[in-house]
Design brief:
There is one protein chain. By secondary structure, the protein is mostly beta strands. It contains no helices and 17 strands. Strands 3, 4, 5, 6 and 7 form a 5-stranded antiparallel sheet that branches. A hairpin with an 8-residue loop joins β16 (about 200-210) and β17. The radius of gyration is 19 Å and the shape is globular. The termini are far apart.
Length: about 240
C-alpha cells in the first residue's frame, strides 16, 4: 500500500453486499506493523481444536518479522495481533519473509512454525548476497517474542550437486525454542511455497543470476527433519532414478 504497513485483512464472505465496505462489519483489519516500507506476506491459517474453524494465523513481512494473529474468539472484534502486538520472531531487516510458513502441531504442545527468508521481487534482488535462513520456531503459546539465541543451529555443507547437513539434537524446553539453518550459497534464498510431508520439511531455494544472458539462476531441493532441521536419517531422493530412494 501507499502507507507501506504490514496488515492482515479478513473479509467476511457476505462483506460488501450492500455496496459499501465497513471495517468491523464487512471485514476485519489487523495492523501488525504501522510503520512504512513494509507489507505482510502470504498468511497460513491453523485450526488448533479440530473443529473446522481457524484459531491462529501466521505470516511474515518484508522486514523479516514473523507475526501471529489470534482469531480464536467467536467475536471478531476480539481478534488481535498476538504476543501483545509484538512479532512472534524477528529474523531481521536483511531477511525478508515472503513465502508462507508451514505450521504443524508440536509433540510437546503448541505449534511448530517452519519458514525461510529471502526476496526475489525487484530488480535489485538479483544481486543481493545477504545470508538467508530457514527456521523452525516452537510457539508453545508464547507470550513474548522468541529470541534467536534460543535456537539450535544446523549446518548445511555443499558437495558438488548434493548437500549434507548436521544432526544436532534440539531439546525443546523453556530455553530451547527451535532451530535454524543459514543457507550456504551466497545469494541463496527461499521464495517458493514449502511443504511438510510425513515429518519431512521440503523447500526449494533459488540462487539468482544478474546476467541477462543466463537462464535465471539455479537452486536446490531440500528435505530435512521438521522437528530438528537436521539431516534425515533415511534417504529422501531417488538420485540415480532407479525408483529406489
Amino acid at each position: 500500500s501507499t502507507g507501506g504497513k504490514a496488515v492482515l485483512y479478513i473479509s467476511f464472505i457476505d462483506g460488501g453486499d450492500d455496496g459499501t465496505w465497513t471495517v468491523g462489519t464487512d471485514y476485519i483489519k489487523l495492523v501488525a506493523d504501522a510503520g512504512s516500507g513494509n507489507g505482510l506476506s502470504t498468511p497460513t491459517t491453523f485450526d488448533n481444536s479440530g473443529n473446522g474453524l481457524v484459531d491462529v494465523i501466521y505470516a511474515g513481512d518484508i522486514k523479516g518479522n514473523l507475526w501471529k494473529f489470534d482469531v480464536s474468539s467467536a467475536t471478531p472484534s476480539n481478534w488481535n495481533v498476538a504476543v501483545s502486538g509484538m512479532p512472534l520472531f524477528v529474523a531481521g531487516t536483511q531477511k525478508p519473509i515472503i513465502s508462507p510458513p508451514v505450521v504443524s502441531f508440536h509433540r510437546k504442545g503448541g505449534r511448530l512454525v517452519l519458514f525461510g527468508t529471502g526476496k526475489y521481487l525487484e530488480t535489485g534482488d538479483t544481486t543481493t548476497t545477504n545470508t538467508q535462513t530457514v527456521y523452525g520456531i516452537w510457539d508453545n503459546n508464547a507470550t513474548a517474542s522468541i529470541s534467536a539465541g534460543t535456537l539450535v543451529q544446523q549446518v548445511i555443507t555443499d558437495d558438488a550437486d548434493k548437500r549434507t547437513g548436521t544432526i544436532n539434537p534440539v531439546p525443546y524446553s523453556a530455553t530451547i525454542k527451535g532451530w535454524y539453518i543459514n543457507l550456504p550459497v551466497s545469494g541463496e534464498r527461499v521464495t517458493g511455497v514449502p511443504t511438510l510431508v510425513d515429518g519431512i520439511f521440503l523447500f526449494n531455494t533459488i540462487i539468482p543470476t544478474a546476467s541477462p544472458c543466463d537462464f535465471g539462476g539455479r537452486g536446490f531441493v531440500n528435505a530435512i527433519d521438521f522437528l530438528t532441521g537436521g539431516m534425515l536419517a533415511m534417504p529422501a531422493f531417488d538420485t540415480n532414478r532407479n525408483r529406489v530412494l
